[in-house]
From TrEMBL:
Classification via SUPFAM superfamilies: Glyceraldehyde-3-phosphate dehydrogenase-like, C-terminal domain, NAD(P)-binding Rossmann-fold domains
Protein name, entry field: Gfo/Idh/MocA family oxidoreductase
InterPro entries: Gfo/Idh/MocA-like_OxRdtase_N, Gfo/Idh/MocA_Oxidoreductase, GFO_IDH_MocA-like_dom, NAD(P)-bd_dom_sf
Domain spans labelled GFO/IDH/MocA-like oxidoreductase: 136-259
Length: 349
């Protein structure tokens, strides 16, 4: 067994070696962390990555949690398994950062949040798009009131995924039990999170969902109308059936102007004032598709923040509690689609 070399470092482990590979790469680069172990129920996968990164391989979370040099566990397994693993991790007295969505029901999410809070352990939820430079700039302008009174937003995720994408890895994607939904819960959840982060709490939703182009249980197309508590309205489109894929977009309009992003880069920035055109040109140069800099690796940024949070005994930038809101909106859309009526939030957990 490879023991931690420097006691002041955060000993880290990753479970689930699909998306978990991005967590491994981030941990290798991060300061103040040592990757000690990886875990996957597929023994060959666990051993392959353990050999590659010279760490220990596990196929069982419980075994890995017996180690006293592991301080932080990254949960990157299918979404419907997150809470069951998070509860074991909290019980073992370790911090955790979990992939989005935190889990697929509010009842489980609340149990996970509570388990870490009562033990004074940190729980982070990956929503790396929040940390994109253009997204942060847009959020700051909205919070500063530069768009005036919030009025309208459009959040669109128009992606394409093949049938093979749904069938591979045991076929967990597009199932109610493990994915908790389809294109809204798995893919559009990032943009729905940005929508509510920028526009504020949701009052009600009306939604329609359908399966258009795949053999799956859950939706590959969801459309919703959203009313916010501040009176603003929004539309949501989330699909994995838009062949060959059209990217994501988020537009937000207030009484003093609007900002639009395509694939998390600024395409329009029009705010009332004498310098409107000059400001837009500046924003597009810094945060738009004409900027020269490569896209930021915001998964790394979020994971470095989580390590710093554990070392300094503070909450991470995006906590487990922050991971709850987008899931609640998606669940409300599903309830509306099933019941054929408008659904008010908050939902009963
Ligand atoms: N933040 C993002 O942009 C992003 C991107 C992709 C996936 N994700 C999230 O990451 C999670 C995993 O998705 P994925 O695409 O990597 O799936 P995947 O199927 O590619 O990988 C999941 C891995 O978990 C392993 N696994 C399953 N059950 C296990 C268990 N009980 N114990 C140990 N290992 C187990 C599987 O063997 C597999 O290697 C999901 O919650 C998904 O929503 C997030």
């Amino acid at each position: 067994m490879n023991k931690k070399r420097d006691k002041s470092n955060v000993g880290a482990a990753v479970i689930g070696l699909g998306r978990g590979r991005a967590h491994i790469e981030a941990l290798i680069r991060a300061e103040g962390a040592e990757l000690l172990a990886v875990c996957d129920k597929n023994k060959e996968t666990a051993e392959r990555f353990a050999a590659k990164y010279e760490v220990d391989a596990y196929t069982d979370l419980g075994e890995m949690l017996k180690r006293d040099d592991i301080d932080l566990v990254h949960v990157c397994t299918p979404s419907g398994l997150h809470t069951e693993m998070l509860l074991q991790i909290a019980e073992a007295g370790k911090h955790a950062i979990t992939e989005k969505p935190l889990d697929i029901t509010l009842e489980r999410i609340d149990r996970a949040i509570e388990a870490f809070a009562t033990r004074q352990l940190q729980l982070g939820c990956i929503f790396q798009i929040r940390l994109m430079p253009a997204v942060l700039e847009m959020k700051q302008a909205i919070d500063a009131g530069r768009l005036g009174k919030p009025m309208l937003a459009n959040a669109q995720v128009k992606w394409f995924r093949t049938q093979e994408y749904y069938d591979q890895n045991g076929g967990w994607r597009g199932t109610w039990a493990w994915d908790g939904g389809g294109s809204l819960m798995n893919q559009a959840v990032h943009t729905i999170d940005l929508l509510q982060w920028m526009m504020g709490p949701v009052q009600s939703v009306v939604g329609h969902t359908q399966v258009s182009a795949h053999r799956i249980e859950t939706e590959d197309l969801g459309v919703a109308l959203v009313k916010f508590r501040n009176g603003a309205l929004a539309t949501i489109v989330g699909t994995t059936a838009a062949y060959p894929g059209f990217g994501t977009s988020l537009e937000i309009f207030g009484t003093d102007g609007g900002i639009a992003m395509k694939d998390n880069l600024i395409t329009e920035w029009k705010i009332r004032g004498d310098d409107m055109a000059a400001e837009e040109a500046d924003m597009r140069r810094k945060f738009g598709d004409d900027k020269a800099a490569p896209p930021a690796d915001t998964t790394y940024v979020q994971i470095q923040d989580m390590i710093d949070a554990v070392r300094n005994n503070r909450a991470p930038l995006i906590t487990g509690r922050e991971g709850r809101d987008a899931v609640e909106i998606v669940l409300a859309i599903y309830e509306s689609a099933r019941a054929g009526k408008e659904i008010e939030l908050p939902l009963k957990s």
